Amino acid sequence: MSMFELKFLERHLYLSLGDQLWLFDTGAPQSFGEGEKLSILGKEFPVASSFMGLDANKVSEHAGVQMQGLLGADVINHFDYRIDVQNESIEISEDLIEMGESPLPIKEFMGIPVLTAEIGGAEYSMFFDSGAKYSYFQGDGLSSFPALGTVADFYPGVGPFETDTFSVPMKIGSVDISTQCGKLPDLLAMTLSMADTSGIIGNELLFDRVVTYSPKRNLISF
């Protein structure tokens, strides 16, 4: 197990590898960036130069932070993690990290984790996307929650868009979180329906708590 710096910049999380910043994105199926390979804990991974028309420079421009590339599920899922956003640290291990009490099972779709969230007394399957600045909920009742204003966001394959957001409380296992939730453009909403999911839980899930994430075992604990 090794400790790395995890920076929170412009509402995104970045893994610091030496002098390189990599966007830590559980919601992206494939990593890409500058250079032909990436090394973590002595393991080397080939890295594509682009994905869905995006490269490191374009993502840096949209994110407002200069980065080496995006770290997606194809690399992330090889390790276990203990994530501490408040202390700007992340432990990464090839071995299994001990989970906290009552770990929650995770499903996956194309390598992307899917959690169960309780919203308004009903349960929904939601993608867990640590690369998402905001959360998203496609339920009809979204506008019934307190309004938080309009925000701008960006997703690969869709580009920049704006959405009205609302303060939506969610319960994941025994943990209560408050999210800033918008509604996705139709093209992304179609992807959700294909995966039988109702939204996206963004990196807000990682705030105010230490999270142990084990994609190798399909478990998460808080």
Key attributes of the depicted protein:
eight-stranded mixed β-sheet; 2 domains; ten-stranded mixed β-sheet; 222 residues; globular; Cathepsin D, subunit A, domain 1
Q: Using the coordinates shown, work out and report the CATH topology of the largest domain.
A: Cathepsin D, subunit A, domain 1
Enumerate how many helices there are, as a single number.
3
* Lateral strand order in the biggest sheet: 4-7-3-2-1-9-8-19-20-10
SS-based class:
mainly beta
Output the helix-strand order. EEEEEEHEHEEEEEEEEEEHEEE
From the 3D coordinates, which CATH architecture of the largest domain would you assign?
A: Beta Barrel
User: What is the mean predicted local confidence, pLDDT?
Assistant: 95
- First-residue to last-residue Cα separation: 19 Å
Multimerization state: single chain
Radius of gyration: 17 Å
Overall geometry comes to globular
CATH class of the largest domain: Mainly Beta
Amount of beta strand = over 45%
Task: Walk me through what this model shows.
This protein folds into two domains: 2-93, no CATH class; 104-221, Cathepsin D, subunit A, domain 1 (Beta Barrel). The strands form three sheets. A ten-stranded mixed β-sheet has the order 4-7-3-2-1-9-8-19-20-10. Strands 11-12-13-18-14-17-16-15 form an eight-stranded mixed β-sheet, with no helix packed on it. The chain is globular, with a radius of gyration of 17 Å. It has helices at residues 56-63, 73-76, 186-194, and strands at 2-9, 12-17, 20-24, 32-33, 37-40, 43-46, 69-71, 80-84, 89-93, 104-105, 107-109, 112-119, 122-128, 135-137, 147-155, 159-172, 175-182, 199-201, 210-214, 219-221. Helices cover 9% and strands 48% of the residues. β16 and β17 (175-182) form a beta hairpin. The protein is mainly beta and 222 residues long.
